[in-house]
TrEMBL record:
<keyword id="KW-0052">Apoplast</keyword>
<dbReference type="InterPro" id="IPR004265">
    <property type="entry name" value="Dirigent"/>
</dbReference>
<comment type="subunit">
    <text>Homodimer.</text>
</comment>
<dbReference type="InterPro" id="IPR044859">
    <property type="entry name" value="Allene_oxi_cyc_Dirigent"/>
</dbReference>
<keyword id="KW-0732">Signal</keyword>
<dbReference type="GO" id="GO:0009699">
    <property type="term" value="P:phenylpropanoid biosynthetic process"/>
</dbReference>
<dbReference type="GO" id="GO:0048046">
    <property type="term" value="C:apoplast"/>
</dbReference>
<feature type="signal peptide">
    <location>
        <begin position="1"/>
        <end position="18"/>
    </location>
</feature>
<comment type="function">
    <text>Dirigent proteins impart stereoselectivity on the phenoxy radical-coupling reaction, yielding optically active lignans from two molecules of coniferyl alcohol in the biosynthesis of lignans, flavonolignans, and alkaloids and thus plays a central role in plant secondary metabolism.</text>
</comment>
<keyword id="KW-0964">Secreted</keyword>
<dbReference type="Pfam" id="PF03018">
    <property type="entry name" value="Dirigent"/>
</dbReference>
<protein>
    <recommendedName>
        <fullName>Dirigent protein</fullName>
    </recommendedName>
</protein>
<comment type="similarity">
    <text>Belongs to the plant dirigent protein family.</text>
</comment>
Length: 181
């Protein structure tokens, strides 16, 4: 039989540590939701002595797979205002991409955009999506954010600006549309 004191203690604890409640958006300082458009260029450098994306894992079959299935890379790619590598850095794309399709070239992208400039300096957006090598424009969901991007949701459109077939280095134009407060 469960001692009465134990029942009393767990009941009291449940009351005192209730872990959820409803709050008003204004209590978090949230006002009107707005839609923002961010435009920048993503530099994925895989060659040379200072790559910004490196292969961290692969499967035994990756080398014989037509799509490089199983290859996983970690990136810390600069984001610039213009397509030029020397153009002003506005943030970085930090995360992972992996070859996730055995039929066609398509990547699973999981990354955070960390912004260093302007209004969104110190705020971040999280992207999770499928990046198909066959589409000129790839659309990937923005699943959340932090700082000024709390409660963010939206999408990113990626359009390859330049791709070096020899080195594998790429510059990709990003247009990001997000709802946030
Ligand atoms: C795949 O090929 C690369 C380059 O030839 C080699 O360095 C690597 O060890 C190979 N990986 C596997 C798992 O066989
Ligand atoms: C956003 O990311 C940067 C870089 O990692 C970090 O310093 C900053 O604290 C993050 N901002 C928020 C609001 O979490």
């Amino acid at each position: 039989m469960i001692p009465l004191t134990l029942i009393f203690v767990s009941f009291a604890a449940a009351k005192a540590t209730g872990f959820s409640r409803t709050v008003s958006p204004s209590s978090l300082g949230l006002r009107k939701e707005k839609l923002s458009h961010l435009h920048f260029y993503f530099h994925d450098i895989v060659s040379g002595r200072n790559p910004t994306a490196v292969r961290v894992a692969e499967a035994a079959m990756t080398n014989t797979s037509a799509t490089g299935f199983g290859a996983v890379s970690m990136m810390d790619d600069p984001l610039t205002e213009g397509p030029d590598a020397g153009s002003k850095i506005v943030g970085r794309a930090q995360g992972i991409y992996g070859s996730a399709d055995q039929e066609e070239v398509a990547l699973l992208m999981v990354l955070n955009f960390a912004f260093f400039e302007g209004k969104y300096k110190g705020s971040n957006l999280s992207l999770l999506g499928r990046n198909s090598g066959y589409n000129k424009i790839r659309e990937m969901p923005i699943v959340g954010g932090s700082g000024l991007f709390r409660f963010a949701r939206g999408y990113a459109k990626a359009n390859t600006h330049t791709f070096d077939l020899v080195t594998g280095d790429a510059v990709v134009e990003y247009n990001v549309y997000v709802f946030h407060y």
